[in-house]
Amino acid sequence: MIRIIRHLVLFLAFALPFNGTAQTDSVRTLYKITKEITADSAVVVTAHPLATKVGLDILRKGGNAVDAAVAVHFALAVVYPQAGNIGGGGFMIYRDKLGNASCLDFREKAPSAAFEKMYQDSMGRVLSKKSTYGALAAGVPGAVDGMWEAHKKYGKLKWGELVMPSVELAEKGFQITPNEAEGLNEQRIFFVKNSSLTPAFVNMEGWKPGDWLIQKDLAETLRRVAGEGRDGFYSGATAKLILREMEKKKGIISEEDLKNYKSVWRKPLEFDWKDLHVITMPPPSSGGIILRQLLAMAGDLKKYGFHSAEAVHLVVEAERRAYADRSVHMADPDFYKVPVQMLTNPEYLKTRMADFNPDTVSSSANLTAGAIKESEETTHFSIVDAEGNAVSITTTLNDSYGSRTVVGGAGFILNNEMDDFSAKPGVANMYGAIGGKANAIEANKRPLSSMTPTIVTRTNKTWMVLGTPGGTTIPTSVFQVLVNVAEFGQTLPEAVQAKRFHHQWKPDHISYETDCFSQEVEATLTRKGHLMNPRESIGRVEAIIRLANGKWQGVADERGDDCAGGY
Ligand code: DON
């Protein structure tokens, strides 16, 4: 009976607030999933319909975009455990209604006991499982501090009001989608192996779509965060539980590490491109720099046509050069002097493309990073409020379900962000990214990221808000959505749902979604010397655009359960 009532309440809750068009079949019976929405005042686009609803509720109550973002972040930690988190970290780009832009870095940090060769054996071989599974893979989480800082600076509603919807979702439970059921079943054995207590995510009989996921421990943790703010996570009962998990599962995060974690307000990376102004993420993300480099090196695409062999070849050759630079020059700016100005200088970028040949590929083996003269799971959400404030946040546990270590008694998953460091020069991490000295592991350092939360303005007004998960494919996905609209004249839904491709210098091949290219284009690319590597979906973009008539359009990626809402 209780189940039926719950089902009815849920159905009513989701039948009412959205007025969009398309839906995905997979979850239609559970939730109304809206992929496109046009709204007069405000839009929220997230990876899960329940998180979108939480954000809209906060906006309707008079909260601003940052209030809604805080509430959405906590909601995703409950309803989207593969990437939503309080045990991970992320980045926020914010632009207020007056045009002031800011950037918050709440990325995880290496614990103070971390050291350069911690994932190598005595022979210098990299033990990649150690940086991906278990407590030792976790960086010091930044998410709760990040939300606390963002709210302190910009929030309007009370903190507790923003966290409580998530306490309720964790305590009462929610029905899982087919995607979530599949994800949790796949990871069951890893959760059991890497956690000291069997977490709520494990169902020995196997999860089915529509099953209720109830997370009592997480509800208690979130209740402490609701009542005590950042201290509810970094000290007291939650901190004790984290330290106990570290002891039991041989992690190295210490009491001091938790106490000392601090997010950082950074200057966003800003640049003009054609008639647009781009506000995006600086280091410790490589994303903003790569986006800038790609737009400069391969932004003139209109004349070639969408997904033509010429356009793809040009973009791939630019990507090859940008990712070669990433491997050497990009890292945590608090530890390594990243030559941002040099890397984004139009003259430098022109020289990078001087040997571009429209007929044939350059070889990644011979192509290295420029000489510097100057001294699969994450989630993104985009929000605009009725006043015109905009938030773009990408947040992550790194891999899907992070380290698969759930803090016993606290109910949340720890990240495996340590794998984003370079465990050894020249050895690829889980995204195939190769790094060296700049991104080597050091105590208290942040690992290099690719996350690219972005806001684009036109004539001084917020025009587009976008971002995506996808590891190293993030900057190239953001680039593609932007040029699909700005160069190829696509609508935002077309631009987001279009097939995507990616090249990252090494491995030396074009990865692409099935049916991305016509047979003819594929043959031409092969003839030019490209190696073609079809793969599963690339990215999940959540984007908002201001239409010519002044309305907002929100678009959620069809590649997942992602959902747009607005009013
Ligand atoms: O910070 C980064 O670049 C990665 N940890 C992001 C991971 C990610 O996007 C996984 N999603 N598929």
Description:
There is one protein chain. The protein is built from 17 helices and 19 strands. It is globular, with a radius of gyration of 22 Å. It starts with a helix and ends with a strand. It has 567 residues and is an alpha+beta fold. The protein folds into two domains: 231 residues, no CATH class; 228 residues, Gamma-glutamyltranspeptidase, small (S) subunit (Glutamine Phosphoribosylpyrophosphate, subunit 1, domain 1), CATH 3.60.20. The strands form four sheets. The protein has a seven-stranded antiparallel sheet. β15, α17 and β16 form a beta-alpha-beta unit. Bound molecules: 6-diazenyl-5-OXO-L-norleucine (DON).
Features:
single chain; 567 residues; alpha+beta; Glutamine Phosphoribosylpyrophosphate, subunit 1, domain 1; 2 domains; seven-stranded antiparallel beta sheet; globular; binds 6-diazenyl-5-OXO-L-norleucine
**Helical segment count:** 17
Mean pLDDT score = 94
Shape: globular
Q: Compute the number of strand runs.
A: 19
Ligands (ions, cofactors included):
6-diazenyl-5-OXO-L-norleucine
Rg, nearest Å: 22 Å
Strand-residue proportion = 15-25%
* Biggest sheet: strand arrangement: 1-18-17-13-12-9-8
Helicity level: 25-40%
The secondary structure category is alpha+beta
Distance between the termini: 33 Å
Domain count: 2
**Poorly predicted residue ranges:** 1-27
Largest sheet, in brief, is: 7 strands, antiparallel
